[in-house]
Give the backbone structure.
Amino acid sequence: MHLYQSLFVGSDRSQYPTGKNDQPRLGLCETFIYKDIGRERCDTMNALFAIISVVIVSLVSFVGLFTLSMKLRHIQKILLYIVSFSAGTLLGAAFFHLIPELGGSVDPQTVSIFVLVGVLVFFILEKFVHWHHCHDPKHAGHTHPVGVLILMGDALHNFVDGLAIGAAYIVSTQLGITTTIAIIVHEIPQEVSDFAILLHAGYSRARALLLNFLSALTAVLGAIVALVLTGIGDHVEMIILPIMAGGFIYIAASDLLPRLQKETAVRKSAIQFVMIALGLGAMWMLLLIE
């Protein structure tokens, strides 16, 4: 038995997650789509869904293309509201879906530990990116090293996103869809920002889009790693999920919300609050399909 199995209740994957009366809760696959083909075939389909989801997330890297014809002030205004909605979806995904999904299967203290591990992991990841965010005017007209470092940091970030999506789909189709939506909404402002930095670093538009997309494809690798790990050992996804929950909470609380605090106008602040609430509401509404 693997060492980490002692952290969990039982060793049979069919024992979790549970629903009413402590009965195993069937996923969307078993309940509606492929109810006649069995659990193993559903796991295979969910793995396919995970790969499709991370490919869609990778395609979000092209969102920068739609900002080329827009004025900077319009982009900043739109991104501010997207960031607000993103903060709500990340917090909602963590508190309404990822953490509750572990209830009854993992000791609450263990969940807390792994959530805190997630916070620290994302703190270190963000530090790595920030250490290399420098802008040297001497490099004007040439590709600045910050471009390479942005791509490296983005590749690592997307790999972790892929891990989250892969692990979520292993638990259930619904959790996979929820996690994918939260990540896509968060990736939109992130990818626009990365695209702008690459252009500033001296990359052509075509090269910036291509390299940004290639770095985004590491999400596919992350999903594959998550799927392979869950095939090797039991309950691996139950370790990844609370870590990702901690990551979602960290991104929302330390990155997105502080960015919104810089806006002091009452009207815009009210709109931000509404967008955060809408993000939370969207994640709450997704509970209806679980």
